[in-house]
From TrEMBL:
Keywords: Hydrolase, Magnesium, Metal-binding. Its cofactor is Mg(2+). Residues 20-153 form the Nudix hydrolase domain. GO terms for cellular component: cytoplasm. Pfam families: NUDIX. InterPro entries: DDP-like_NUDIX, NUDIX_hydrolase-like_dom_sf, NUDIX_hydrolase_dom. The keyword Phosphoprotein does not apply. SUPFAM superfamilies: Nudix. It comes from Methylobacterium nonmethylotrophicum. This is NUDIX hydrolase.
Length: 187
């Protein structure tokens, strides 16, 4: 009986240890839009057709971020630079082919998309679309994934503000630090 349970665990991801989620890896595919604002690509899941990110099981011989990048290629034809540090993780209920569900925790890595290939393995099984950050956060059903998307958008906005150019020692209009005179040369 125990070996049957072990086989069931291998096939379905079920674990006798209650409450222990199965681990998955995924990417948050991003690019700058025409206006410079961050865009996020979402793809549809094969079974329920809901909006998700490219994700899958860890792969033997690959680091988690490498496996996540492989999923982006297989599921959406995306090529780019993947971050080695996870942005965070979220939980969801994965429906298995047996119609059972298993709790999964997805470790998410940022993928700066450089291009989308013309053909890829799951091209005819999924739909992909670029969204603005607010649209992407609204389109997904998992609250944890929506929070990761919003955080990535907020981080992008913060880094764009930090890139205000200062030339010849002058501070751009409206950017004078509190308590400083406009012509004060001290930092």
């Amino acid at each position: 009986m125990k070996s049957l349970r072990a086989l069931a665990g291998v096939l379905t991801g079920w674990s006798e240890r209650s409450g222990e989620p199965r681990r998955q890896v995924g990417v948050l595919p991003v690019r700058p839009g025409p206006d410079g604002a961050l865009q996020v690509m979402l793809i549809t899941s094969r079974e329920t057709r809901r909006w998700v990110i490219p994700k899958g099981w860890p792969m033997k011989g690959l680091k988690n971020y490498e496996a996540a990048a492989r999923e982006a290629y297989e599921e959406a034809g995306l090529i780019g630079r993947v971050g080695r540090r996870a942005l965070g993780s979220y939980f969801y209920q994965k429906r298995l082919k047996s119609r059972d569900t298993v709790l999964c925790q997805v470790q998410v890595f940022r993928l700066e998309v450089r291009k989308q290939l013309k053909t890829w393995p799951e091209q005819h099984e999924r739909e992909g679309r670029w969204f603005s950050v607010p649209e992407a956060a609204e389109a997904v059903t998992e609250p944890g994934l929506a929070a990761l998307i919003r955080a990535a958008g907020a981080e992008r906005a913060k880094s764009r503000k930090a890139k205000v150019k200062v030339s010849a020692g002058k501070v751009p209009a409206g950017k004078i630090p509190a308590g400083k005179a406009p012509d004060d040369p001290t930092p």
